[in-house]
Every structure is written in structure tokens, then in C-alpha cells.
Design brief:
This protein is of the alpha+beta class. It has 8 helices and 16 strands. The chain is elongated, with a radius of gyration of 27 Å.
Amino acid sequence: MVNSLMVSFLFAIVFADELGWMKWDAFDEIEQQFRTVTGDNCRSKPITDLIMPEDVLTQIPKYNELRTKVFYKNRTNLIHLHNLALNRAFYFSYIYQRLNTSDVFETMPDVHYLHFSVAADINANPIVNGSAMYFDQDCYYPNWMINYDFNRTLPLFAPRSWRWDDSFDMVNILREPTLTTTFVVDAGSGLNKNYTNHGYRMNPWYDFWLPDTHPVYDSTRKFTWSVNLKFSNSSGVFTHNTFEGFNFFGPNNPGTNDPIEKLPVRFTRPYFDCARSNKWVVSAVSPVADFMPRYSNWTHLRRPRFVGVVVMDTDFEHVDFNPCGISAGNPGPSYLAGIDRCKEHSKCKHLSGFGFRRGSYVCKCRDGYRYPTEIEHPYKGSNIEESTWTEYNEGFNCTPTERKY
């Protein structure tokens, strides 16, 4: 019995030593934060535990760099999220100002339209796992209040949807998520739902543009756009053969050297969407402009104002990160850079499609070195991350060649 316990004890020491060679790094810190916050305990967590460091998400698409900068394929999803948020912000800015008259206000997008719109954003885009439109305090004019004061607003209104796990729905006989079900709510209705208040905890998208209380900055934050459209009531038939021009205020059109504060789309830090989707998400945010007050006989008393924001979410665990060191293809600052385990005679190359997982790289031999003839190359990061100390120490090597560079 004693000998058996001694053998087990020695085996445990050797086993722990073989697998304990990987030191604690930045990925372990973020993964610990990622795993420890859940939908059951997020309400009791401090804000610092619900928001990740600012440089965890890197190589963020910027509006004024889309045509001049090379974005790698591991950022195409973020670019699509960026463009979708900007598209929705332009559309609602245009339609609200285009119908901002007393004779056609009833044709504006109503409550039901907005709920269907955020649901359609998710169903039409596999990478989008959340869509919302948050109106600022007393900035939403419901077009069905025809029996009330004409300029009456709702205190808060925010159609919000996210992709719902329907694995255990009664109609789902396969018990597998179909990814076609969305959960839609008004995030501003009910008790303790004032998302304009910092006590709401998880509203990092709000302070980008709201509340818009500084008219002196209108000329630098809001841009005048002009469109010419033909209108139609049936397919292929226009009501008029001429284009109708219309000018409206919308998101900013920044210059090449303008700072991030003047971009029309901003990305949040990864945060936990507590009490809603209960996931770690990254949001692209763009502002919606309208005239306030909306209906007035004295137009000089109105001004363009950001009345709300369009928010598009994607799951943080599906966003790639580059574990290789800081380089031309991986500009810093980057919290997760340099966590690869390539040896000194090999160099790291990033692989796309891994999301927030280890092993998203390969190790290639540097100039002047070659792979052993009996192994498969290049060395996969996923194999390195799963290796023991003996396997790592004796393998994944590159032998020098006679040719020097």
C-alpha cells in the first residue's frame, strides 16, 4: 500500500512537471476573466471585471483608413460590422429627417418596424449576434400618438435583439441551435432600465455621442449629406421620372488625420452583456441624427442632434487575435501579442479562424535553418500548446544549414 502511494505521488510530480512548463501569460489573464464572469454572477461583479483592457481588441477598422490601409482577412468580420452599423445610422438619419413634417410623420418607422429591423440585422448576417437602436432621453417620437400632444416623446426606447439559443425549444427536435432565432425586447422599458444612467453598468456605447448637449460642436461632429432618389410604389415603376434631391445631417466624414473621436463608427472594448445575451461581446456604434424638437413652426429653433445610436454586436470569442510579436502585420499596442511559443530559430505566423483560442499560429524556420526531413512542417501552434516539456524540448526544432544569409 505504501509503495503504491509512493509511486502515485512520484507520478503526479513528474506529470505536473511535464505539463507545467508553460508559464502564466496575458492569455491566461484574459481567459480567467472570460471564464469567471457568467450570467448568474455578473450583477455582483465590479465594472472592472466586466470590461476587458482596451488593447485586447487590435487592428480595429477605421472609417478614414478603409481605402488606404491593408486589412487582413482576420478583420473582414469587423469591417462588415463597421459598415453595417454605419449603413443603419445613415438610413435612419435620412428617413427621420426626410419625413420630419406634420403631413407624413405617420409613415415614419414605428415601434414594430424598429423591432423587426433589429431582428432582420441578425437573421441576415451570421457574424452579427446582437443589434440595437438606443434612443437618448426623450428623443423618440412615436408616430402613433395622434391623440396626444403632437410633440410628445417616450422617455426611453431601445429595440434590442440578440441571437437566441433555441436548442431546447419544443419545435427543435434535433436539440441543436439553429442560429435563426432572435430574442427581441425594448431595453428601455420596465424598472431599472435607464441605459442613459451609469448605474446601468453595461452601456459603454452610450458615452461615445450621447447625450448630445453641445451645439457648438455641431459643425465638426455632424456632416451634411446630399442624396438624389427616385421613388416607387411598385416594382419597376417610379412615381416620377426625375430625381428628387434631399440634404440631411448624418454621421461625420472625417479627414485622414482626424482622431478617433471624430470617426463615424466607434468600437467598444470587449464587455460582458450582463442580463441580456450574457456573453462577452464587441460592439460597433454609430450615431443617428435628427432635428430637435422635431415638429416646430419655427425652424430656427431646431438644430440637428444625435438622438440615438445604432449598436451592432459580435461575440468576442469569435474575433481573431494575433499571438505573434509586434511587427508590421501586428501593430501594437496589443495585450495578447507575443504569447506564441515558437523557438528562437523559428518565426511566428498568424492563422485566421481560431477566434479566442490558443494555437492560432504556425512556427516557420528562419533563414539559414531547415526542418528535419522526417516531420510535417511548418510546426502548428495547436500541437505546441498541447505538448509536454519533453516533447517541446526535443521537438519543434530547426537545424542550421550551410547557407548563411
